[in-house]
Amino acid sequence: MEANKVAAAAERRSGCGLLTVMFGRRGLWSKKSTAADNGSQKSTSTAATATSNIQFTKSPGTELKKPRDDHKKVSAEPVQNKKIQSQQNQNQRSVVPSKPSSNQYPNNHQLGSYESHQQQQQQRSSYNNNSNSVDPYRGGGQRKVPREAIGLSGELESMFTDHQKARGANGLVRASSSNVMLYGNLGNLNQTGPVTAGVNYGNNNGYGVKRTTMAAATKSQDQSGSLCRAISTRMDPETLKIMGNEDYKNGNFAEALALYDAAIAIDPNKAAYRSNKSAALTALGRILDAVFECREAIRIEPYYHRAHHRLGNLYLRLGEVEKSIYHFKHSGPEADSEDIAKAKTVQTKLNKCTEAKRLRDWNGLITETTNTISAGADAAPQVYALLAEALLKTHRHQEADEALSRCPVFDVDTSTRYYGPVGYAGFLVVRAQVHLASGRFDEAVEAIQRAGKLDGNNREVIMVSRRAQAVTEARFRGNELFKAGRFQEACAAYGEGLDNDPRNSVLLCNRAACRTKLGQFDKAVEDCTAALSVRPGYGKARLRRADCNSKIGKWELAVGDYEILRKETPEDEQVTRGLSEAQQQLMKRRGQDS
Description:
It holds the Pfam family TPR_2. By secondary structure, the protein is mainly alpha-helical. The protein is built from 27 helices and 2 strands. The protein has a two-stranded antiparallel sheet. A hairpin with a 2-residue loop joins strand 1 (172-176) and strand 2. Helix 20 packs antiparallel against helix 21. It is elongated, with a radius of gyration of 33 Å.
């Protein structure tokens, strides 16, 4: 209990306080409800170190007992009792098994539809009537279908249905009511001839399979491997974990995650399953989800050293150094002095970022944030946000976009749950500004509107929202006027947008297009140059500037732009044609000068 209270207290501590400076009154590490510590959501990045800590233990699987073949011991009936026995059999066939209770299975939501099960049983009853056979569970005795059989069939039915929804029916064949086989493993069935959709193989419940190509069947077999292996284990959680470990070692992280999820669904109170799931999520780049699973593993087993060590590494990547050090100290033999030393190094660099932000030393902030990411905080959104903000302040819009694109993209709900509404709103403000500077107006408006819902009283949110709306409306109005051929009015509309965002590359390039139509080539070149100063890779602005320089006879400048464009888009015929013409004109001019 003492360790739990100390761990809970450490979880509530704020981090380095970095975003307090960046986003005003609260940082990204805002206090969140304790309920957020127990779940998992979705979130993308890479994890090179996750493969070393996973557990690989084995335990034998379990087998379900097969029902006795009582139907083989049917006693002969007197001739005069056949009619009475037939009526009794029909009455017994109409008996409906009781619906299993919700407490009977820990993962009741994975059970197959009860109504579907009833329908299957009725179909089997009809089949038995036609074939004059005796069902050991329905005919000739007083037994009802056991609940265990219903539960297993339901779970397998659910897995089969989920696979069909996710990957289609190709590659899986229903062999009986409770078994699924890979298409390539159909035993003695003829697989070489054409198969028609809707063909049944020996029972009334068969699923038809439509043949495509052998390549498609092989691909489907690979994708369905984990599913069929999971079915063959009869849902033993330890066997599922061993299979997940095998997939994890082979780099099949998504398959491993599915198997760990299946094990957890059966036994949700096993810390090792949660910890291994965290490793798979880390490898898939879902860092926040991995944190939630590690927290749950430690809640189940407070002195689980491996989970503490894994959580310490995750917190370090997220830039939460204090929490990282706490869990390293509680990871026993799993951690060493290098882990804590690395965490302290990241903390030092984060402090320098905070100081540079306070002094508004944007170039210094670019250096310090880059160093912090290299030191180990490579999945910390607040660090990437600081870097992007500093690049925007120094009018390096393209680099800001590239920096933010390297930040792991976390699910909105997961991020809000982890950082809190105010903390995540601060990150969205920076993202909206980067979208706006890169000409993604709709994305900018969407991001800032979401930030407003999370923290509507934030003054920076309000200011960026107004600017995004004004620029977006100006751009839309200018585009409509340009399409109508009203170039002078379109030029003025783009200018109104530039009053709110003077270095917006898209508005500058659009105004250059209007000025080109009006014959104002020198001014068009100026606008294109301004756009390229913040976004050197903006190909449309460079092409427009090359065209304008050609029109005013500045062939050398035109050749320079065309050559850059040809390296970037060698297949573009317009660029090739423009470069050829500019080179010929330049050679003529040089010949005349000589």
